[in-house]
TrEMBL record:
<comment type="similarity">
    <text>Belongs to the ROK (NagC/XylR) family.</text>
</comment>
<dbReference type="InterPro" id="IPR036390">
    <property type="entry name" value="WH_DNA-bd_sf"/>
</dbReference>
<dbReference type="InterPro" id="IPR043129">
    <property type="entry name" value="ATPase_NBD"/>
</dbReference>
<dbReference type="InterPro" id="IPR000600">
    <property type="entry name" value="ROK"/>
</dbReference>
<protein>
    <submittedName>
        <fullName>ROK family transcriptional regulator</fullName>
    </submittedName>
</protein>
<dbReference type="Pfam" id="PF00480">
    <property type="entry name" value="ROK"/>
</dbReference>
<dbReference type="InterPro" id="IPR036388">
    <property type="entry name" value="WH-like_DNA-bd_sf"/>
</dbReference>
Amino acid sequence: MNAVMHGLRKGTNASGMRRYNERLILSAVRRLNGASKADLSRVTGLSPQAVVRIVDELADGGTLIQSGKRTGGMGQPAIIYRINGKRGYTVGLEVGRGGLTIALLDFDGERQAVHRPDGAFPSITRVIDEVNGFLHEHLATKSLLNSDTFLGVGIAMPWFIGEWREELGISVDQASEWRGTDVAHRLSDGIAWPTHFENDGNAATLAQLLCGAGINLQDFLSVNLGTFIGGGLVLSGRVVQGRHGNAGALASMPVPTAGHEDYLIHHASLYSLPADPKEQDLAAWIERCADALGFAVIGANSLLDLEAVVIDGAAPQPVIDGVAAALERRLSRNVPPDFFAPAVRTGRLGSAAAAVGAGLLPLHASFSPDLSALFKPAASG
């Protein structure tokens, strides 16, 4: 599967540059959750004249709408612009080892509906049937399933979804179906709309970056507590994919254990937590998870000097909060003397994080530039 989040390069002609700058403005408005023209000039580095022209064109076309005014300071009140959510829709799908999550997003990235079908580790045929049924229920019956309104389907899934079979308790046949080289083609062929694929960890990280706990961060490690622990990496305001689209794949991070080397997947994944754990068992799991995660975070942060670690996932919010608090305690002791501990934040996207990120993929592919271009000093001219 080809990764789709490398960003868009600046155009080499006037038309390409104008399109790039439009996408830059839209990305900035989305991350800032509404912005004035002065705000947009400041964070994008575009000249005030260029911003005025682009914002007015986007507003005239209905992509941006005025959402209020900001008073204070000298001069006239500043008009705040937001993205017009009704301009279009996308669907995000997470194909997870624990089941499916499907989310309908509007053009502003807001969730309009979320569906989690019953059952775990679905077949490819079932995935296609569930997505098409969701599209019919939420879009076709409202006459919104057309090329002017619907932008496509984003699909997030682990690159190695058929691996770790023993931990999942699935059959050889179930695992083999997802190991084939034709998985992306089968999914695309079964869905009659543009499809965009991404690793589930990267998709969840994109969701945190654009509409979650990382919205005002430039450099952070995203931790997603799911059936298996996953993650992603943001540097300079951009989701980093790596050569194979697998950067930030925390599950395979080595951690020390008594007498042998082990991996983070065995210490910080929900599959190892009983469905209804006793209080003492849950507390022990949280400490074990945080201790192993702390080892991984110290290594990553020593290499990358991160602003923060964002923890979210399918676990109940008290468990997410408990892991975050335990990780903070872990990072306050037994660390190198030259270690700058990153902040620890908790997200609120929950089990929908990867599906929301998947739903953002069509928006990102069509309307967003490389996000590292954001938050640069304003340029003249």
